[in-house]
Design brief:
Layout: H1 2-20, E1 60-63, E2 69-72, E3 81-86, E4 94-101, E5 105-108, E6 117-125, E7 128-139, E8 153-159, E9 162-163, E10 168-170, E11 175-177, E12 183-186, E13 194-198, E14 203-205, E15 208-209, E16 212-213, E17 216-218, E18 227-228, E19 231-235, E20 240-246, H2 257-277, E21 282-287, H3 304-311, E22 318-319, H4 334-345, E23 350-354, E24 357-361, E25 365-367, E26 382-384, H5 388-398, E27 407-410, H6 433-439, E28 446-450, E29 457-461, E30 465-469, E31 498-505, E32 508-515, E33 524-528, H7 536-539, H8 545-548, H9 551-555, E34 566-571, E35 579-584, E36 587-588, E37 592-596, H10 599-611, E38 623-630, E39 638-643, E40 649-654
Parallel strand pairs: 1-7, 8-18, 8-19, 20-21, 21-22, 24-27, 27-28, 28-30
Antiparallel strand pairs: 2-5, 3-4, 3-6, 4-5, 6-7, 8-9, 8-12, 10-11, 10-13, 13-17, 14-19, 15-16, 20-31, 23-24, 25-26, 29-30, 31-32, 33-34, 34-38, 35-36, 35-39, 37-38, 39-40
Length: about 675
């Protein structure tokens, strides 16, 4: 009999718990309609259940810290205990006591360390208990913000409880500003699932997830529920700030990428951050997309949360942009494929301000992914296009920005194709890039940061608009630094793997490319072409005959011996306002800009792949930041000076003959 009674008790408790999961109500900040627990007209005897009645728990429970909250119902006693059990299984359970019993409710104070999220509430009195319902706890500054007709999202943007006016708030569709009390209202279709603020200059958000600023809050999916979402800011001085632009990490737990990322990039970038912070400057990072590699999400169990674990080791706040490889490959739908990103990193397009600079992040990948379905990675095909809705939102966002404000736009896929040595403005790569350019035409200075290509180039469109396509953190997808390969870290255009460093001093903007593992002044590499001859015998000795026969195809012009006393100079940060000077014994040599591949990249990647009888996937890029001079003899010394647009001079005294090898500078 004891076993039967125990089995009956277990069954009743489980049955009541399951029923409670279907109870959703609203009391404080939301809909005023509530639903009460079903009342059985002829309930069976329940000796293990409290006899509480008229219990009503809201779907979203807005609570104010250190303030009593009301839980409705009749039949409570002063010694009752309320248990809060999280439904995500990640946070701990909490137990709270009753501070006051009234005829139709009790008052409680929730723990200071209670985390926001979804919980089941259970009342306990000795051996008796009763499930009260399930709710989502949401901290608010004020519980007295009145509802407004037609608005289903509201809240306060504040500094330590003091409301801040004129802060831009959006859900990706509607855009509004806070009033003089810091209060905002939005009408949201809740399609994106969040609301976000455009952080004003000289402020930061208080809430962070490791080093990721939480400038957004997730919303209840039901558009009929009124959400209250607050944002707390803190004042900082960031008029003079440093921004690291981080392109294409492609973290996937392959090719020794995590070790290279940690010991190479993270070590290098954190040294830079420490250097600038010692000068009293705020440092931020901004990714350019392709944080991960969706091809390996499921096979290698490395997705966006794993990326967050890695990037959290960077000692600066990180804002993220989405790349084509950050989509869920199990979905053949752009919107659905983005949901994993939204769940982990928030908005796919948004804006913020640092100092006097307005930053805008856009998603210009239209992910098609033909054949993608649950359990099946699709073709991962895509279009380069900015969705019409983003452009509509951007127009609203920019209404709050003065024309004299410097604008930084971030898209993953480049707006323009790479320029050629003839200097002509290249065609667009993003299909509706002209619409974006037109939207930005009233601003005096616009910089567009892009990635995707894993190479460096810059495109000027007039005197106010400039695109900066930045080579990759992963260089050639982490191949050349892989164990057993060339032992260097080089991108397809010959640029070392690296990132952009932007010095923002009020509205004065400077930038340079930082090569991982090298000093800031390392901005070019020289080749003595007399010594550059790529052959199968020298670089693919372990390959079979089939793959050796492919060497000339992948070596390009360097498959042929060159004894013309020519020197090739690869200047990865070049733009048309740079100057190159080469002298030989005091005499100036003619410098010719050319389109060329980089020979070091060819031997570091393509030849390494052929040497293990594999066909190279990532060809060396034909790039126009290459320059050639002709010396008079094979053994003269050349003095090379490269001056960037800001007057910084980078130089090399090139003693010739100069060796050609994997570790050359």
């Amino acid at each position: 009999m004891k076993k039967e009674h125990l089995r009956y008790k277990t069954y009743r408790l489980f049955h009541l718990f399951i029923l409670s999961l279907f109870i959703s109500f609203s009391i404080i900040s939301c809909e005023k309609t509530t639903t009460k627990p079903d009342e059985d007209k002829n309930p069976p005897e329940q000796v293990d259940r409290l006899q509480l009645s008229e219990v009503s728990i809201p779907a979203v429970f807005d609570i104010k810290k250190d303030t009593e909250a009301r839980i409705s119902g009749k039949g409570y006693q002063a010694d009752d205990v309320i248990t809060l059990t999280p439904l995500d299984g990640l946070t701990k359970s909490y137990t709270i006591t009753v501070t006051k019993v009234e005829s139709n409710h009790i008052l409680v104070v929730f723990p200071e360390d209670l985390l926001e999220g979804r919980y089941t509430l259970v009342a306990q009195r000795g051996d008796l208990s009763q499930t009260l319902g399930t709710t989502t706890f949401n901290y608010v500054l004020r519980t007295d913000i009145p509802d407004r007709e037609g608005k289903n999202v509201k809240g306060v943007v504040h500094i330590n409880g003091e409301g801040l006016a004129n802060v831009v708030v959006s859900d990706g569709y509607d855009v509004t500003k806070t009033n003089e009390e810091g209060v905002y209202y939005l009408h949201s279709n809740k399609r994106t699932g969040y609301v976000f603020i455009s952080i004003p200059g000289n402020f930061e958000v208080v809430s962070t997830n490791n080093n990721l600023p939480q400038f957004y809050r997730y919303l209840n999916a039901n558009p009929n529920i009124i959400d209250t979402k607050d944002f707390e800011l803190k004042p900082v001085a960031n008029d003079n700030h440093i921004l690291l632009s981080l392109g294409d990490m492609h973290l996937a737990a392959r090719n020794d990428d995590l070790a290279q990322f940690q010991h190479g990039f993270l070590s290098d970038a954190n040294q830079q951050i420490t250097h600038y912070q010692a000068q009293g400057k705020k440092v931020y990072a901004l990714t350019l997309g392709d944080l991960t590699w969706e091809t390996y999400w499921y096979s290698n169990n490395f997705t966006l949360p794993e990326y967050v674990q890695q990037i959290s080791k960077l000692n600066a706040p990180v804002f993220n942009a989405m790349g084509n490889h950050d989509n869920d490959p199990y979905f053949a739908s752009d919107w659905l494929a983005e949901n994993a990103y939204r769940r982990t990193l928030g908005p796919t397009y948004y804006s913020f301000n640092l100092g006097k600079v307005h930053y805008v992040i856009l998603d210009n990948t239209e992910y098609i992914n033909t054949g993608g379905s649950t359990g099946n990675v699709g073709q991962r095909n895509y279009n380069a296009k900015i969705a019409d809705q983003q452009l509509t939102w951007l127009e609203k966002d920019l209404e709050a920005v003065n024309s004299s404000t410097p604008i930084v736009i971030v898209t993953h896929i480049q707006l323009h194709n790479a320029p050629s040595a003839n200097g002509n403005t290249p065609n667009y790569r993003t299909s509706n890039a002209q619409q974006l350019v037109d939207l930005l035409s009233r601003f005096n200075e616009v910089h567009v940061m892009t990635g995707h290509t894993h190479v460096n180039y810059r495109v000027l469109r007039g005197d106010k608009f400039m695109e900066h396509n930045t080579a990759a953190i992963c260089a050639t997808w982490w191949w050349t630094g892989r164990n057993g390969y060339s032992g260097n870290h080089i991108s397809p255009d010959g640029s070392p793997g690296g990132y952009g460093v932007w010095e923002m001093n009020s509205t004065n903007i400077k930038w340079h490319y930082k090569s991982i593992g090298y000093e800031n002044k390392y901005q070019f590499r020289t080749y003595d072409l007399n010594n550059v001859h790529i052959t199968a015998d020298k670089y693919t000795s372990a390959a079979n005959s089939q793959h050796k026969s492919l060497v000339p195809q992948y070596a390009f012009d360097f498959a042929t011996e060159n004894n013309n006393d020519e020197v090739l100079i690869n200047i990865w940060g070049y733009d048309p306002k740079w100057n190159i000077s080469v002298t030989e014994n005091g005499s100036s040599l003619t410098v010719q800009r050319i389109d060329s591949r980089d020979p070091l990249h060819i031997i570091s990647y393509a030849m390494q792949r052929l040497n293990v009888n594999a066909v190279p996937t990532f060809n060396s890029a034909n790039t126009s930041h290459m320059f050639k001079v002709k010396a008079s003899t094979p053994n003269t010394t050349l003095d090379i000076q490269v001056t960037d647009r800001f007057g910084n001079v980078y130089s090399e005294t090139m003693e010739r003959p100069k060796a050609f090898n994997y570790s050359m500078r």
